Amino acid sequence: MRREGIRARMARLYRANPRLHRFYEQYPNLLWKHQAQRPDQVWVSDITYVSVAGQWRYLATVMDQCSRRVLGWSLSRVRGTRLTRAAFELAVRRRRPPAGLIFHSDRGSEYAGNALGDRLKALGVLQSMTRGGCPSDNPHAESLFHSLKADAIHGVRFLDDEHLRRCLRSYVAFYNRERLHSSLDYQSPIEYERRIA
């Protein structure tokens, strides 16, 4: 093999990082014990990516777990804490959540950064994260992205950021006002919030 320049494919070995495990222990998954019974008890957030002219754009969203209403979103060329904080700040401006709100996300560094964590603490918001490698711990956010991509993204070629932003604004308005959810007795998120208010 050496003479012919052939190398075997090898699997990388996983090495546990105890410091990383200790770091994430400060962000337990609070949704094991809490399910939202009314709006502004639990918000869920996640990040996905969309291609624009052959380059990735990153989309962060914040959704109310109870009503499935999208409360805030942010789009950026860079995936980082600034992206997630922008989506969170938009949701805060729209809802003014009470202290004790649970903010749940995956374990991405975009959510574990001080810029977001300090802001959550200042508002009395409890930070919750999924277990590592378990997207099923954040099903509502994952479902939103599935619906968004199936309904509005797949099959569309976005030529620039503004084209994508227009699509997202339109879709979020549709999702909140018109899209029916079986888990909400076939009501839209806004209808559901009005009904339980």
Order of helices and strands: HEEEHEHHEHHH
> How many alpha or pi helices?
7
Distance between the termini: 71 Å
At CATH level 3, the topology is Nucleotidyltransferase, domain 5
Structural class: alpha/beta
Q: What is the rounded Rg?
A: 19 Å
- How many domain modules? 1
Strand order of the largest sheet: 3-2-1-4-5
Spatial shape: globular
Identify the CATH architecture. 2-Layer Sandwich
Low-confidence stretches: none
**Mean pLDDT over all positions:** 90
Jot down its keywords.
five-stranded mixed beta sheet; 197 residues; 39% helix; Nucleotidyltransferase, domain 5
Can you describe this structure in just a few lines?
The protein has seven helices and five strands. It is of the alpha/beta class. It has a five-stranded mixed beta sheet, with helices on both faces.
Structure description:
It is a single chain. The N and C termini lie far apart (about 70 Å). It contains seven helices and five strands. The protein has a single domain, classed as Ribonuclease H-like superfamily/Ribonuclease H (Nucleotidyltransferase, domain 5), CATH 3.30.420. α2 packs parallel to α4. With about 200 residues, the protein is α/β, with parallel strands linked by helices.
Secondary structure blueprint with pairings:
Elements: H1 18-25, E1 42-52, E2 55-64, E3 70-76, H2 81-95, E4 102-105, H3 109-112, H4 114-122, E5 126-129, H5 139-153, H6 161-177, H7 189-196
Parallel strand pairs: 1-4, 4-5
Antiparallel strand pairs: 1-2, 2-3
Helix pairs in contact: 2-4
